[in-house]
Amino acid sequence: MDSPRISIRPFKLSDVDDFLEWASDDRVTRYLRWNTITTKEEALTYVEKVVIPHPWRRTICLDGRSIGYVSVKPESGDNKCRAHVSYAVGAAYWGQGIVAMALRVMISSALKEFPDLVRLEALVEVENRASQRVLEKVGFLKEGLLRKYGFCKGEIRDMFIYSFLSTDKIL
Ligand SMILES: CC(C)(COP(=O)(O)OP(=O)(O)OC[C@H]1O[C@@H](n2cnc3c(N)ncnc32)[C@H](O)[C@@H]1OP(=O)(O)O)[C@@H](O)C(=O)NCCC(=O)NCCS
């Protein structure tokens, strides 16, 4: 999708109702490192304490309203050359190219905003085919399988690792 109705911007506290709409859906949070958010109070605390202070987390908007997010978290010290990427969009919007579009914007913005970055990386569960496909669509390279790499929803999982280097071409 390349639509003028889709945009990316920092979160605001006033996004909380729209945020709750997709963050309360277990299908959306299933492969994310954070848990489904069920109440408005919880959503407000999360947006205020976690989302807004994040180094680079943007909401994906449809007609200005939050329908998902994309984030980049650079490491520090000797590892500041790399950053971890994360993303999701409400289930009603899956399969429309929205996250692919958001990732393309994210890559060029993050590489400009964090000049030390040379590598963006993403970890994806083996069953999460849509997430693997979206990364491949925008130019990330699957580097391999990390066996029993980390916890997701209480279980230690195998994960594919993907990377995009600052010298790679955005597809
Ligand atoms: C993964 C996710 C971000 C993809 O977002 P999206 O906006 O639907 O992505 P796009 O439409 O740009 O591309 C999805 C691609 O995956 C493909 N796809 C979808 N389901 C698939 C499946 N089960 N198997 C293989 N491919 C699949 C689509 O056909 C599309 O590819 P195409 O354009 O070649 O047809 C979205 O499904 C989501 O938010 N999931 C929940 C959160 C999540 O898993 N985040 C990633 C954590 S690593």
From TrEMBL:
Positions of the N-acetyltransferase domain: 6-167
Keyword DNA damage appears in the UniProt entry: no
Highest taxon listed in the record's lineage: Eukaryota
Gene Ontology molecular function: any one: acyltransferase activity, transferring groups other than amino-acyl groups
UniProtKB keywords: Transferase
Coiled coil (residue ranges): none
Keyword Transferase included in the entry's annotation: yes
UniProt-listed PANTHER family: ACYL-COA N-ACYLTRANSFERASES (NAT) SUPERFAMILY PROTEIN
Protein name in the entry: Putative N-acetyltransferase p20
